[in-house]
Amino acid sequence: MGTARQPTDANDRNLQELAALFKVVAHPVRLAILESLLTGVKCVKQLNAPISVSQPNLSQHMSALRRAGLVDCESRGPLRCYYLLRPSLVEHLLETKPARHSTKPRSRESVLTELNASAQQDI
């Protein structure tokens, strides 16, 4: 395998940023946190109730989401409450949940038709 190429333009940088974002959210607990925060600000106990992880583990996930610029928090005394910084981005990420999309595979015939049409454009 070759080495990873360095970004040469804005598109490459955008793809690298997107890959880094996918890496952060590629965990079921983090996705559950983001999904929960779509409904509004949640304090730690509210977040932790439906997500069955220890509070220290939840804090680690929250830290990763904060570093990624997806969430932030507000502290009021002993309360620490979290909110989404980029709700529309999170909505779009969660739209990719498999349950929202057909699992029916494409037919070979439809792929060949598309391939032939594409090949005709290149001529």
Topology summary:
Blueprint: H1 10-25, H2 28-37, E1 42-43, H3 44-48, H4 55-67, E2 71-76, E3 79-84, H5 87-94, H6 108-122
Antiparallel strand pairs: 1-3, 2-3
Describe the structure.
The chain is mostly helical and 123 residues long. The chain has one domain: Arc Repressor Mutant, subunit A. Helix content is 54%, strand content 11%. It contains six helices and three strands. It has a three-stranded antiparallel sheet. The radius of gyration is 20 Å and the shape is elongated.
CATH class: Mainly Alpha
Distance, first to last CA: 32 Å
Tally of alpha and pi helices: 6
- CATH topology name: Arc Repressor Mutant, subunit A
Please state the average pLDDT score: 87
Quick recap:
The protein has 123 residues and is mainly alpha-helical. It has helices at residues 10-25, 28-37, 44-48, 55-67, 87-94, 108-122, and strands at 42-43, 71-76, 79-84.
Sum up the structure in keywords.
elongated; 123 residues; mainly alpha
